[in-house]
Specification:
Chemotaxis Receptor Methyltransferase Cher, domain 1; Rossmann fold; about 20% strand
């Protein structure tokens, strides 16, 4: 049964306010599929009943569960392999030259979900250990959802999760099997710290970054929100810094001070320094 317009409108407005996520009628299926587990777990008779509960008797914890469910994004190890190839062969070598005196690299994974992306970067950096000897490396991973951050911090994944995008030799080298799950080694885990951050809020306290991964999240924002988030990210980037967007994301038609770089002319964007 189709959800009533007032219920859909409530969820759309809630998600836009809390997370910046912009949905329309074409995304009703997301409301239905992602909120149904909450309906069952919390004992509601329907998604409509869940919506009316929040509309008339706001429950902070329940509202956060709804936001968490709707903002948990698809992820996998080394997702869309091409950006990681460019990172290793083009971006990191340039940053190593630019920061040779400082010998420090800071990378931010925004909307990192359950951790596969930052751990993939950690694996890549471990593979470059000889070139990075003596360097201070820090990967900061953030997400709006505490449940996915909890899973990321634990660093344990099912066989299905590690088989998605992770080369077999990396599984043998960087994971240990335990009780049917695969746990990432400390050599990678120690490079990554996880924090809860909403991209709509102030994230300036993260400090200067050399690379920002912000993939497959801006597509859910409206144009104004995209520009605002990208502008604040640009302010965090070092003069030699880069931001990485998702394969389906573009800066065309937006007010942004970035220029596309890399062998494909996409994926990575370098800040234009005034």
């Amino acid at each position: 049964m189709a959800l009533k317009l007032e219920i859909l409108d409530y969820f759309y407005k809630l998600l836009r306010k809390e997370s910046g996520l912009v949905l329309d009628a074409s995304k009703q299926y997301l409301i239905e599929t992602r909120l149904e587990p909450i309906v069952m777990h919390e004992g509601f008779t329907s998604i409509e009943a869940l919506g009316r509960k929040l509309m008339h008797n706001d429950d902070t914890l329940l509202r956060q569960k709804v936001v968490d469910a709707m903002t948990t994004n698809e992820t996998s190890f080394f997702r869309d392999q091409k950006p990681f190839d460019i990172l290793k062969s083009e971006i990191l070598p340039e940053i190593l030259k630019a920061k040779e005196d400082e010998k420090r690299i800071r990378i931010w994974c925004a909307a990192s979900s359950t951790g596969q992306e930052p751990y993939s970067i950690g694996i890549l950096l471990n593979e470059m250990a000889r070139a990075l000897r003596g360097w201070d490396i820090e990967i900061i991973a953030t997400d709006i959802s505490e449940p996915v951050l909890k899973k990321a911090r634990i660093g344990m994944y099912s066989l299905y999760e590690v088989q998605r995008g992770l080369p077999p030799h990396y599984l043998d080298k960087y994971f240990e099997k335990s009780n049917g799950m695969w746990c990432i080694h400390d050599a990678v885990r120690k490079l990554v710290s996880f924090r809860k951050i909403n991209l709509l809020s102030d994230f300036g306290a993260l400090g200067t970054m050399d690379i920002i991964f912000c993939r497959n999240i801006l597509i859910y924002f409206d144009k104004e929100t995209k520009e605002r988030v990208l502008d604040r990210m640009r302010n965090l980037l070092s003069p030699s810094g880069y931001v990485l967007l998702g394969a389906s994301e573009t800066l065309l038609g937006m007010e942004s001070k970035f220029v596309g770089v890399g062998s494909t002319g996409r994926h990575f964007y370098k800040k234009i320094n005034n």
